[in-house]
Amino acid sequence: MKTLIVGVGALGGILAGRLSGAGYAVWLATRDAESAAKLQACGVQVTGVGGALSVAVSAVLPLEQYSETDAFELIVLATKAQAAIDCAPRLSRLLAAGGTLLPIQNGGVSQILARELGSECVLGGLSNLGGTMTALGSYEQRNAGHLLIGELAGGLSERAERVRAALGRALDVRVTPNLRGAAWSKLILNCSTTTIGAVVGATMREYITSREGRELFTRAYDEALSVALASGVHPERMLVEPVPPGWSGGSVPSAAYDAWLGEVLAAYGELKASMLQDIERRRPTEIDFINGYVVDLGRQLAVSTPVNAAIVETIQAISRGVAVPSPSHLARILGAR
Predict the structure, then answer these.
(1) In this structure, which long-range contacts are made by residues 279-286, counting pairs with CB atoms below 8 Å and at least 24 apart in sequence?
(2) What dotted CATH number matches 3-177?
(3) pLDDT per position as a tens digit, 179-224
């Protein structure tokens, strides 16, 4: 499949490197001409889990320089959430007849784009690949994650299987008939791992050792799970079971819960939160599409989400520069009602 990868941050860079290293021809789209020139000069280097590789890059241009004549069969949208929504209308015009746009963002981006562009061209996607961009063209893969794809309406399709077979030459790609449930499972974890890591400026392994850090993780997770269930979603297992053992409207302390939390730590404990990286680079965060999405939907469904709302307020304050990431935020957030 003639494939364009839009976005060369951590996820886009790792995808481009792994696919190119396996002999899969990909085109890359950057934000500007300067980034395209730098990437063409230095190539793509990927280290970490999955092995090291270095590949040359030739087919790379700023997104604005691609045109309808390029006619891509598959466009993988690996930008941040707001950027994905902003550029998607242009991308739909770069698709070949019957082509597929595959957004891989947190929150409800795939659903938003399907409403705007039509579900016939949008295939839902999620990533469990953890990675860091150390410099443009240099990426570290931090886990042995996978891509999960599926039809937004549910069920299996020939289209999803074609995309799986194509990208599966270099990556672990799986198809689910319950993408909505899978998206919520990841969203719940992002609400309680990624954003808390950005709030305190530490990895989950570091903040979970404190009583306040563990309590905040639990309460943020429980609120988000309650909203998901109230919306009629059946969360799907991703790296861990989405419903903690013994859960009944809230997590129950037990040896089984501790073991479940250990699985979460094994998957996410060492990762530096992508939202924290955005803050450090003074880039917009995705907080409105993660905890903010849970708070908005919870309000519609009459499900209380005070901790998630306080996390949103804290990240917004940090983004404005009136606060900095610090464990000192934990007690205040836990006091939210």
Answers:
(1) 279/198, 279/315, 279/318, 279/319, 279/325, 283/80, 284/80, 284/82, 284/319, 285/198, 285/315, 285/319, 286/80, 286/81, 286/82, 286/105, 286/106, 286/107
(2) 3.40.50.720
(3) 989 999 989 999 999 899 999 999 999 999 999 999 999 999 999 9
Q: Which residues of the chain form CATH 1.10.1040.10?
A: 182-334
Output the pTM of the full model. Answer: 0.83
φ, ψ for residue 74, nearest 5 deg: -140, 130
Neighbours of 230 (CB within 10 A): 14
Q: Residue 208 burial by CB count (10 A; 0-12/13-18/19+): exposed, middle or buried?
A: buried
Best CA proximity match to 126, nearest among 166, 76, 197:
76
Tokens (6 digits) for 26: 């990909």
β-bridge mates for residue 150, sequence order: 124
What residue type is assigned to position 171 of the chain?
L
Contact 35, 61 (CB under 8 A): no
Every domain range in the chain assigned CATH 3.40.50.720: 3-177
- 184 CB-contact burial (10 Å; exposed 0-12 / middle 13-18 / buried 19+): buried
Specify the CATH number of the domain 182-334: 1.10.1040.10
State pLDDT tens for residues 220-254. 999 999 999 999 999 988 778 999 999 999 999 99
User: What's the sign of the alpha-carbon dihedral 224, 225, 227, 231?
Assistant: positive
- Proportion of the chain in helix, strand, coil states, percent, rounded to 5: 45, 15, 35
Helices (H), the chain: 10-21, 33-42, 81-92, 109-117, 158-167, 179-192, 194-200, 204-207, 211-230, 255-268, 274-280, 291-301, 306-320, 329-334
Is the sign of the CA dihedral 290, 103, 162, 27 positive or negative? negative
Q: What is the mean pLDDT of the chain?
A: 93
Instruction: For 121-151, write each residue's pLDDT tens digit.
Output: 999 999 888 888 999 999 999 888 889 999 9
